[in-house]
């Protein structure tokens, strides 16, 4: 992929002779040696966004050799005259740390894009009983997104809790992820789960976000940022998420969250959310989502990217 992207850039450059490339996802091109070679002069300069900041590995007290390997590409980018700016997505701590290395480092946040909800009534569409608390995982459904962990947790709830909840798995299922297991079948028979294996349009996405009670974020890779966080904060949602990495940082100070970790499992977090849902919803409303949306607008995102090109 990196080789193909680079060759296409060179091809277009021969025709239009531009002098700068702005990569909205710099990670996609990093595997090409020309991009990381600080001694090779390219026919253009470039800048771009790094999605998975290596700084979070430092916070985990990872071994020095591992940290060095994780940060090597960043060192090469900052040393290269071809690279004019590196934006770290959703990582202020990392920006403050790496600024000691170079002034090329800049912070940028995921833009919040608010779409008017569709007329979809999720309770009617999925035949959910009106009294049920809805727990939503939305986006790509996959093992590395924690989808199977969610199913395990809901399958093991005691009857007193199980009868109160309905699980919504909304999004395209990875072809390597089996959602036809006995556990899923049992949950379906009990009308405790709905799966929508489809790419969800933006207006339906907004409808699910607004009408669900709890959003589940169970990504295995806690270092990488995730756009779902901004949607949760913009909608004042009750959230269940890992108490590690990016999620610990992103939800710092947010009161409408139940964290899970090695000593407090996902299942326990779900039970806690059921028992305290009214309090959690009130706490979530204390967050100033309007100010958050304004500070993280698409306009602000574009302005941050483009101001260094002049």
Give the helix/strand layout:
Elements: H1 2-16, E1 20-23, H2 33-36, E2 45-50, H3 55-59, H4 64-79, E3 83-89, H5 92-98, E4 105-108, H6 122-125, E5 133-138, H7 147-155, H8 159-162, E6 165-170, H9 182-189, E7 193-196, H10 202-211, E8 214-216, H11 228-234, E9 238-242, H12 245-250, E10 257-260, H13 266-275, H14 277-285, H15 289-295, H16 298-306
Parallel strand pairs: 1-2, 2-3, 3-4, 5-6, 5-8, 6-7, 8-9, 9-10
Structural commentary:
The chain is of the alpha/beta class and 310 residues long. The chain is built from 16 helices and ten strands. Strands 7-6-5-8-9-10 form a six-stranded parallel beta sheet, sandwiched between helices. Strands 1-2-3-4 form a four-stranded parallel beta sheet, with helices on both faces.
- Averaged pLDDT, please? 92
Please trace the helix and strand order, writing H or E for each element. HEHEHHEHEHEHHEHEHEHEHEHHHH
Q: What is the CATH superfamily of the largest domain?
A: Glycogen Phosphorylase B
Number of separate strands: 10
Gross morphology: elongated
Query: How many separate structural domains?
Result: 2
Classify the beta-strand content into a percent band.
Answer: 15-25%
Helical residue percent? 40-55%
CATH topology of the largest domain: Rossmann fold
Briefly, what CATH class of the largest domain? Answer: Alpha Beta
Distance separating the two termini: 30 Å
Radius of gyration: 22 Å
Count of discrete alpha- or pi-helical segments spanning 4 or more residues = 16
Largest sheet: 6 strands, parallel
For this structure, the quaternary state is: single chain
Instruction: Name the structural class.
Output: alpha/beta
Instruction: List the strand order in the largest sheet.
Output: 7-6-5-8-9-10
């Amino acid at each position: 992929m990196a080789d193909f992207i680079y060759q296409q850039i060179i091809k277009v450059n021969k025709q239009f002779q531009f002098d700068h490339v702005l990569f909205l996802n710099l990670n996609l091109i990093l595997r090409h040696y020309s991009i990381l070679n600080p001694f090779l002069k390219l026919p253009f300069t470039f800048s771009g966004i790094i999605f998975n900041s290596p700084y979070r590995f430092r916070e985990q007290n990872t071994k020095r050799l591992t940290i060095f390997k994780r940060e090597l590409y960043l060192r090469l980018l900052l040393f290269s005259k071809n690279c004019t700016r590196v934006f770290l997505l959703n990582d202020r701590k990392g920006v403050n740390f790496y600024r000691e290395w170079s002034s090329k480092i800049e912070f940028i946040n995921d833009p919040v894009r608010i779409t008017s909800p569709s007329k979809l009534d999720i309770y009617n569409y999925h035949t959910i009983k009106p009294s049920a608390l809805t727990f939503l995982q939305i986006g790509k459904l996959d093992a590395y997104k924690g989808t199977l962990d969610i199913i395990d947790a809901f399958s093991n709830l005691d009857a007193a809790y199980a009868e109160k909840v309905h699980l919504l798995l909304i999004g395209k299922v990875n072809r390597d992820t089996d959602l036809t297991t006995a556990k899923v079948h049992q949950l379906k028979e009990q009308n405790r789960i709905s799966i929508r294996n489809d790419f969800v349009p933006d207006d339906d996405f907004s409808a699910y976000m607004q009408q669900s009670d709890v959003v589940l974020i169970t990504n295995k890779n806690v270092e990488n940022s995730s756009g779902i966080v901004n949607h949760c904060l913009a909608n004042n949602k009750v959230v269940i998420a890992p108490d590690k990495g990016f999620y610990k940082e992103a939800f710092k100070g947010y009161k409408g969250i139940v964290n899970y970790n090695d000593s407090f499992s996902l299942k326990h977090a779900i039970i806690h959310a059921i028992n305290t849902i009214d309090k959690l919803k009130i706490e979530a409303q204390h967050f100033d989502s309007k100010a958050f949306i304004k500070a993280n607008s698409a306009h602000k995102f574009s302005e941050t990217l483009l101001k260094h090109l002049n």
